[in-house]
From TrEMBL:
It comes from the Bacteria. This is PHP domain-containing protein. Residues 19-84 form the Polymerase/histidinol phosphatase N-terminal domain. PANTHER family: EXONUCLEASE (PTHR42924), POLYMERASE_HISTIDINOL PHOSPHATASE N-TERMINAL DOMAIN-CONTAINING PROTEIN (PTHR42924:SF3). GO terms for molecular function: 5'-3' DNA exonuclease activity; 5'-3' RNA exonuclease activity. InterPro entries: PHP_dom, PHP_domain, Pol/His_phosphatase_N, Pol/histidinol_Pase-like.
Amino acid sequence: MPMNALPARFEGTSLPLTIDLHMHSTASDGALPPAEVVALCKARGLTHMALTDHDTVAGIAEAERAAAREGIRLLPGTELSTRWSGVNIHVVGLLPQGVRGALVEGLEAQAESREKRALRIAERMEKIGLAGALAKAREQAGSERPLGRPDFARALVAAGLVPDITTAFKKHLGDGKAGDVKAMWPELAEAVGWIVDAGGVAVLAHPMRHGLTRRKRGLLLDAFRAAGGQAAELVSGFQNTDKTRDLARQLQERELYASVGSDFHFPGGHLAPGSMSSVPRTAIPPVWTHPRLAHLCRPCSGVDPAVDDGAGGEAAGGAAGMLSSATSH
């Protein structure tokens, strides 16, 4: 394979991939400025990356300048918060054409929702003993960016109400807890439509982390695909290999592409840019072989990417074609 080329298929090798399509910076709830995220990616040997801050693209311009200096191929992105059947579902938008169309107003609406949501979370955190919750979360954020649950989690730790962030989520901020405010997010299908309308690729983020049964995860994947979703994160950080293989079967049944990402937020933890479980051998095509992302794949060993006709409906057919091709090798 040529230097810096991405693999055209997942062969089950233990060699680390040089691409990470899910990372965060100080533009949302990450600890490093966008340029420092890019520099860390370079230091860790990555050749391709996406910056996917929550409900914003505010860090993309800085990241693009840094990527040009570092010689890394940067894909603009964002991670949208949505609702599906009472569950908070995140959708990564990989945006080769940037923000346009319905996504422009969608991101504006998300920013407003985040402000209202922060107020509601603050009210609930004050009831459990975090006085001045909004100000303390803002202090943890260190900027005027929209607040997220991790900011309140750090505030709870700083106030001595919980020993660590994990406990903060387990007791107060995780799914179904007092700080889990999701009623303001758009429905899954609406957010997927924004991404597809912008010429992007909609990726279901970390489908293994919601505590869903296999059957309900299948229903989620069905709804996502029906809405125009094109891919899902087959690997997100570190996960059980057998469960990854089972997820691969679910994606293959629905002719979805497979994405990979560390979901990096801060240095010093067990996740770093490019750190994730290896991908088992599978016929599912990597998301970077999707026609809308073909520029990332040049050169890719063994693939001649199709040219996107600009329509949103080519995703499933393109995946089916790639699946057929990959299976024949």
